[in-house]
Amino acid sequence: MTWRTRVWVLALLPVVLAVVTPWILLAVFSERLPDRAYVDGWSRTGPDHAQGAPTWPEWASGFLFFTAAACVAAVALVYWRRVPRLQRWVVAVSWAFAGQIAGGVIIDVAPVVDVTGYPTQQAPGWADLAKLAIGLVTAVMGWVLVGRLPAAPDAKDNLPEGALRRNLGPTERVVFFESMRSVKAACLGCALVAVAIVLNAAAFAVMGVALFLLARANVQIDSEGVLLDLPLMRVRQRVPYQQIKYAEAVNQRYTREWSPLLEDIHRFGYVGQRGDHMVLHLSDARDFVVSLRAAAAAVALVNGEIARRRELAC
Known about the structure:
The chain is α+β, with helices and mostly antiparallel strands. The chain contains eight helices and nine strands. This is DUF1648 domain-containing protein.
């Protein structure tokens, strides 16, 4: 099975299984369930409103609506067909969605098995947290099952005429390091944490902490390529010289989003400040972008190392 086929199967199959899970439970426990689907919110309305609860087939039919998620996943895979990194995210989100739906169905139905009439006990308070936990675990499973991303082709073209370049001797080493900070990410992260404390909302706290951890990044250029390091999150992204066509320094605004991380069909990287950026044009038709104070010096080093390697390869 090719990598592309595996991604399609991993993205669509979990959604299909989540949709059919209610029907499987009905087939297995049809004789042991109460007359109506006293699950979800219907387990809290009280026996006076029990007749308003749906029948079990009506309840299971409601999950057919989630087949739209499979259509969304298919559209995303087609749109990002040239970006394996984003296709992996599609698989992870699909598994998180399917795991939360299927796990939630099992958690909701299990307490009413062998119950006659309206259940005397409400759904357990930990059910929502359990569904969220299942979604997170299945998202990690989907991410791991994708496996290693396909390698990008090597760049073989010469540097364009006029490209900024530093002539490197045979024994010279390429060394560059710069630390960046995103004030916007730090401020937004602190604001979200404050909102979480006021509203007692865990989701805002998670988002705020994640943003705050993105507020610092390091860029290193060495003998292996260009390394983007997010030290607070312990995440690294390396771009080897073999995948770089050439580098250039540009001065433009790349993003207006709330996060300094840049990721779309055309480019990825870290934009923490306005001003000069180093843009690496890669062999897979995407650009790697990082904002640097000494962007020109970094570009000259990268182009110099690329030129030296390709001259030695000839």
